[in-house]
Design a protein that fits this description.
Layout (H helix, E strand, L loop, with lengths): L11 E7 L5 H13 L6 E10 L9 E9 L2 E9 L2 H22 L26 E5 L5 E2 L1 H11 L3 E6 L5 E6 L5 E5 L18 E3 L6 E2 L1 H11 L3 E6 L5 E6 L5 E5 L3
Parallel strand pairs: 1-2, 5-14, 6-7, 9-10, 11-12
Antiparallel strand pairs: 2-3, 3-4, 7-8, 8-9, 12-13, 13-14
Helix pairs in contact: 1-2
Length: about 260
């Protein structure tokens, strides 16, 4: 390979939270770069988050997650483990597997070389012993989007499920990865949300795509196969908005509206 064919290493940004070992950031950067080394398409951005929970009661307290932009296509992975080095090693393996799947199936999840793509349909344990922990969202039963953003920021959450005080539609606000916030709603056939009253310098984009209608088992499948931090959906059994996410203890959290 001549000099003109050598691609520069992609930049890998690493963020740490909690009592993460001092050398973990460089270790994670090296492992993620190793996984990215076999990607044939341009890697436009890579962000790794490492966090360490405190407390003897926390199962698998080390959390490692990565978001990669492969030529405009997001690839995500998330793992928990007993120690941070173990979590980083697992993250590298999971990321490598998802990058390979993107290469084989293309950006739309269809095999590149023909054949059929059958979607698995796991039960709520997803074959790995996880269970679903159900609880209702905190705070007032109904809020404005601005109040939901303020509550999310005050508690340091990445997302917050609420029922819009004006439209009565189940909704979620979440961080969009660029420093702003985004609002998704369970229905599209409702008036535009009221977004005034946001915290200073806060922004709020509004998704025009309604939450998909599905069962909890389908939401588990989507959470695992997409690598997203959460899945917002309309629960087919209740008709209400719901949010499924990974918990620090390795199980799934299912949040439902307060009212």
């Amino acid at each position: 390979m001549n000099r003109s064919q050598i691609r520069p290493l992609p930049e890998v940004r690493v963020e740490v939270r909690g009592e993460v070992p001092g050398d973990a950031a460089e270790y994670a950067r090296a492992k993620v770069l190793a996984a990215l080394g076999k990607v044939g398409e341009p890697v436009l951005g890579t962000r790794v988050k490492l966090s360490q929970a405190v407390g003897a009661s926390v199962r698998r307290p080390a959390l490692a997650q990565v978001n990669v932009d492969v030529n405009g296509h997001p690839v995500r992975a998330r793992v928990t483990a007993d120690t941070m080095p173990e979590a980083i090693d697992l993250l590298r393996d999971r990321l490598a597997g998802r990058l390979a799947r993107v290469h084989r199936h293309g950006h739309h999840g269809r095999p590149r070389h023909g054949g059929t793509h059958r979607r698995p349909h796991p039960g709520p344990h997803a074959g790995r012993g996880q269970r679903i922990v159900r609880h209702r969202t905190h705070g007032p039963a109904r809020q404005t989007p601005a109040e939901a953003v303020r509550g999310m920021e005050a508690l340091g959450y990445e997302f917050h499920l609420f029922t819009d005080a004006v439209s009565g539609v189940d909704s979620v606000v979440y961080r969009d990865g660029t420093g702003g916030h985004r609002l998704a709603r369970a229905r599209r056939d409702v008036p535009a949300p009221v977004t005034s009253g946001l915290p200073p310098a806060a922004s709020l984009g509004v998704s025009g795509i309604p939450a998909p209608r599905m069962g909890v088992e389908q939401a588990v499948w989507r959470l695992e196969t997409t690598g997203l931090p959460f899945v917002f959906f309309v629960d087919a059994s209740t008709g209400r908005g719901a949010l499924l996410h990974h918990r620090r203890d390795g199980h799934y959290g299912l949040i439902t509206p307060a009212d």
